[in-house]
Amino acid sequence: MLYIAYFFLIGGALFLAWSNGANDNFKGVATLYGSGTVGFRRALVWTTVATLLGSSVSVILARSLTIAFSGKALLPETALGPALLGATGTAAAITIFLATVLGMPTSTTHALTGSLVGAGLAATGPAAIDWHLLATKFAQPLLLSPVLAVTITAIVYALLSSWRRRLAVADGSCVCIAENTPAPMGLPADGVAVMAPVEGRNPLEIGVGLPHECAERYPGKVLGLRARWLVDVVHYISAAAVCFARAVNDTPKIAALLLGATALTGGVPTAVPLALVALVMALGGWLQSRRVAETMGHEITDLNPGQGLTANLMTAALVLGASRLGLPVSTTHVSCGSLFGIGLVSGGGHRKTILQILATWVTTLPVALLLGFAIFTSFSIFGVTGR
What we know:
- This protein folds into two domains: 2-164 and 229-381, no CATH class; 175-214, no CATH class.
- The protein is 68% helix and 3% strand.
- It has helices at residues 2-24, 30-34, 40-61, 63-69, 82-101, 108-124, 131-166, 227-259, 262-265, 271-288, 290-299, 305-325, 331-346, 351-381, and strands at residues 192-194, 205-207, 221-222, 225-226.
- Strands 1-2 form a two-stranded antiparallel ribbon.
- Helix 1 runs antiparallel to helix 8 (227-259), helix 5 (82-101) runs antiparallel to helix 14 (351-381) and helix 6 (108-124) packs parallel to helix 14.
- Residues 172-195 and 207-217 have low confidence and may be disordered.
């Protein structure tokens, strides 16, 4: 019956990689999409490329996460095997997949932690689990990361908004005409006309474009560069940084399920499971990320490019720093927390969606724990055990 355990181990890990991609793939570019800077397809291409790059270097930057989520630090090594790790991966994958179907962004880290503890309880009982390590190495970063993201983003955005106003870089609105409506006479080829400024006020800008292009614009210059162009460029870069950071942080967690069973690690280079996980993760994100993209891009808070840029910069800094230190923070909690912080300061937050996301976060760990416990118990009943 051991081959059944290996089937669940490999299948669960790959299903988790797919579900992770579908739920997490758009979290770095949600602000690009939500602010109207780019359309869905271009944002999807950008996040997929950045995610693959992050996964390709994760073996160098995040080795400690691979060890942590193989279960070797949390559970006795004698308890680890394809049955326990297969139950862990399958339970986490089901949890993330259900949240994705509902369009709710949730934490792969929370789901993995819960399912690992649940399977461990079924396999060894509570006495064998290192509860102190669970609290300090896993729970503490997971609880602190959204609080830090909300607080830091709110402070930084308030400071940047003040700085922007001092530089006379004002946010304005553009007027868009439907696709089939001819542009008025006198507009230049790029569809933008600037009216003469009134004394003491910034010039008015009228833009003509497709409806999704009607986004807030930033007239004025910073360091001699057009403010709107500068914001968009840095926004693109920051979005790629978040996607890169997410892949660096998440790829080793999922690959650890394959590496954790000693029968699979003999003679298998670490890069092999990492590459397989990266490809499946990218495919899941490419094909099934639309619902979470809509939630994060349009339903958490109203966004303009400057606000999206601030949220992405804070998310990238926190997640990359955590990966380097081996702390398993949730990219979901950090990225959503940054958006919560923007909504808090701007007053554009959507309370109903935020409460739904928080409810999802609260239920993710216990649902994954119960599933992990139930799946491993089922394995034991049918004799699917062993190392």
